[in-house]
Amino acid sequence: MRSILAALALVSVIFLFDAGAAHAIKLTIKRVVFEGSKRTEVLTLINDSDEEQTYRISWRNMTMRDGKSFSPVEEGETIPGLNPADNMVIFAPRRITIPAGGSQQVRLMVRKPADLADGEYRSHLWIRPEEDAIKFTAPDDATQTVDESATGIQIKMLAGANFPVIVRQGKTNASGTITNPVLTQQGDNFFVTLDLHREGNRSLYGDFQFTCLSGPSPQLIHEIRGIAVYTETTTRHLEFKVKVPDEGAGICQSMRVSYLAGDKDPAFSGKTIAEASITLP
């Protein structure tokens, strides 16, 4: 019986996670887009932790399934609309050690094949800390069931990041529309649901703005940055929570929802991609 209890206790120790020791990665930019004459880019990684950390960088092909979160593309799997970019973008270094609070640059360069077809290509850089496990002695409250000499493995939670790298070739185009917008209120929050549609041979990327229209003048009350619809996705069903403004829900009986491109997008240059108006029932 003692040996069974010891084994159970050791298993519970092996899977103990130390959230306080998590390693955080910060990136200076959210994505890289090679378009037109652009051939190089510099990405800065910041080790936002209290200890030195070594990171490995490699390619990963990711897809946005059902218009929701990303998941890896399985080996041999073909995703309609998704064309990888990892065979035409090189980067260095692939392994870096950054001191606590320090930073390191990663340089990227694109080399397009001469016969590259028009369209958009995308792969993701996978940036992850090297695994780090340390031996430790079982805690005092476990010594009744585990020998004092027993050791386990304390696993540190390691934060990583997937970073989209996009290459556009030749003539690309895209347009967006918002359909089925619905506005409801629960307590101090509005809830907005809508479908964001994309057409064309390139992705869309932009920010959502929520503007109240019922007051004396339009009032921007909320903004959400960095919403994308990628080439393998034609529709994303989105849900947003927007805090009721201090003036109360009366100024937001009706609301305008706008999807605006970033200033760095040469096709849109910060213009509105899609827009819709909604009213509380």
Share of helical residues: under 10%
Tell me the fraction of residues in β-strands, as a range.
over 45%
- List unreliable stretches of 5+ residues: 1-22, 133-157
Largest beta sheet: what is the strand line-up? 3-14-11-5-9
Shape: globular
Distance between the termini: 64 Å
| Name given to the CATH homologous superfamily of the largest domain | Immunoglobulins
Instruction: Please identify, by name, the CATH architecture of the largest domain.
Output: Sandwich
Assembly of the depicted chains = single chain
Number of domains: 2
Secondary structure class reads: mainly beta
Classified by CATH, the class of the largest domain is Mainly Beta
Q: Write down how many β-strands occur, each being a DSSP E stretch of 2 or more residues.
A: 21
Radius of gyration over all CA atoms, rounded: 24 Å
